[in-house]
Write a structure and sequence with these properties.
A seven-stranded antiparallel sheet has the order 1-7-6-5-4-3-2, covered by helices on one side. It starts with a helix and ends with a helix. By secondary structure, it is of the alpha+beta class. Strand 2 and strand 3 form a beta hairpin.
Amino acid sequence: MKFAIVFIFIILIIIGLFLVYFYTRGETSFQFEKSIHTLVPENEVWDAIKEAFKDSENSKVWPNDYSTVKSDGLQDGAEIAITYKMPFVSKTYHYTVSNYEEGKTFTYTSTDDHPLWGEATISLEPWDGGTKLTWEGFYKYNGFSFTALYLKMFFQQGFLNQLEENIRAL
C-alpha cells in the first residue's frame, strides 16, 4: 500500500514537471476580441467607459468583481492602475494610454511591473442606430504564467461578458 502511494506521487511529480517544461519553452501569446452591440448612443457609451477608467468603483458598467481601475483620466501618456481580483489575492498592474481620440478610441499598454507584455484597444463606432464597442488586444509572455492562465481561463470571458451585460443595461 505504501509503495502504491509513493509510486502515484512520483508519477504525479513527473507529469507536473513535464507540464512545467512544456509550458515554459519560448514565447507564448494569446489574443482576445469582444464586440458589443448596443442601442445606447455612442456618447453615452464613451462617457461610461471614461468614467470606468477614472474610478471603476463609481462606474455603472465596469465589472468590479473581476478588477478595479483608477487613473487621473484618459489622455495620451496617462497611467492606469488596474487591480485584478484573483482567487486568494489581488494584484495591481499599470498601463499607459496612447492613441487617444476623444469619443472614438484609445489603447493601453502594460508597463514593466506587469508579468505579461501586451496592449488592448477600445474603440467605438456607429452601429444600426446605436453603438458598436470593440475591445481587442493581446498578451505575450515567456514560459508558464499563472497570470496568463487566469486571464485566459477566467477573467477574459467573465469580465467581458459582464461588461457587455452592463453596457446594454445603460
